[in-house]
Design brief:
22% of the residues are buried. The strands form two sheets. A five-stranded mixed sheet has the order 1-2-3-4-5. It has a three-stranded antiparallel sheet with strand order 6-7-8, with no helix packed on it. The chain starts with 6 loop residues before the first strand and ends in a 7-residue tail after the last helix. With 338 residues, the chain is α+β, with helices and mostly antiparallel strands. The protein is built from 13 helices and eight strands.
């Protein structure tokens, strides 16, 4: 009969439950995983241990894997296999587990708000819709998820927010919001510093949870146009004149705000927008009405740069600012986009 300290058999849950404490600790070796043992104390407590050389040239030592039944047999065997693989690669399992614990703690400390602030500061400046994205992140997502670890946000969390917006009849906004949070997570994953390896938006299809993206058909009526025109008189350059020219030409916001004087022939009353600034990648000629000419002739001309609307003496195009949002609100009291 084998000595109590050197028992060896194929461990099963039934056998583990039957083990009793003796006058001194003893081990039962598992025949399936080399080095795996169950150590039984006189008190009857049972602990899985792995006997191995944890450092090259060192003597074999026992290290605890976990107490039975808090850790089950299958889990103990999986952990023992994982440890033996690490040892074979020259990695100390204790150090690796400490590294993993530290990484998990870092993930828990990285909140959604922290990543959102980094995204806003590093990615959005200079984007034509950057302030719009920032506004919606701060208004919709940060108040709900801000204090939560970013890795804990689930597809259900995202779906719940988007479906709530859809329930308000704001389908277009729901599509935008889903796109914004998808962009944020894709950006965070690409940074390789937040501990995020997947996005909660990966399998969320807009058409499935929102429906088709509606085409925008809303236009301002005469009363709204009149109110908007009157509001622009209260706005100084560049925003007041910019909005007037939008209304008078029907051009897109970016086409007007990025216009340069060399595109205008004031003698012929024509505005030639080059192909690279047009959505359809084709040059476009805009006839200028007398009212549009009046607006253009009232604008300052700068010696340092050619941009028509600029806060840097014509050197750089107009960037979206809080003042522009105020102007946009004045242009469209019902928040219709330009």
């Amino acid at each position: 009969m084998a000595k109590p300290s050197t028992l060896k058999r194929n461990l099963t849950d039934r056998y583990l439950k039957s083990l009793k404490g003796g006058s001194k600790p003893y081990d039962v070796r598992d025949t399936e995983i080399r080095g795996l043992r169950i150590r039984v104390m006189p008190s009857g407590d049972r602990t899985f241990v792995l006997l191995a050389r944890y450092q090259h040239g060192a003597d074999p030592t026992r290290r605890a894997l976990g107490t039975y039944p808090l850790i089950g047999l299958a889990e103990a065997r999986d952990k023992a296999r994982r440890w033996r693989e690490l040892i074979g690669r020259g990695i100390d399992p204790a150090q690796e587990e400490e590294r993993e614990r530290a990484a998990e703690l870092r993930k828990q400390r990285v909140t959604f708000a922290a990543i959102a602030e980094d995204f806003i500061a590093e990615k959005l400046p200079g984007e034509s819709k950057g302030r719009e994205v920032e506004r919606d992140l701060r208004r919709v997502f940060i108040p709900i998820w801000g204090k939560r670890p970013a890795v804990d946000i689930t597809p259900l969390d995202v779906r719940t927010v988007i479906k709530a917006v859809k329930a308000e009849g704001k389908n277009y906004q729901a599509h935008n919001l889903l796109g914004y949070v998808r962009r944020l997570y894709n950006w965070a994953i690409a940074q390789h510093c937040y501990g995020i390896e997947s996005s909660p938006c990966d399998r969320l299809e807009p058409e499935s949870i929102i429906g088709d993206r509606p085409a925008r058909t809303r236009i301002l009526n005469d009363a709204e146009l009149r109110a908007a025109w009157q509001a622009t008189d209260k706005l100084a350059y560049p925003y007041g004149p910019l909005l007037k020219l939008l209304m008078l030409t029907g051009a897109r916001r970016s086409e007007v705000s990025e216009a340069v004087w060399s595109e205008f022939d004031l003698t012929k009353k024509l505005w030639s927008i080059p192909a690279e600034r047009m959505k359809a990648d084709a040059a476009h000629i805009v006839p200028l009405s007398d009212d549009a000419m009046t607006v253009l002739k009232s604008l300052p001309r700068f010696n340092r740069g050619d941009f028509v609307f600029s806060t840097t003496h014509g050197v750089r195009r107009l960037k979206r600012t809080s003042e522009e949002y105020a102007a946009m609100s004045a242009y469209d009291p019902k928040r219709t986009r330009l």
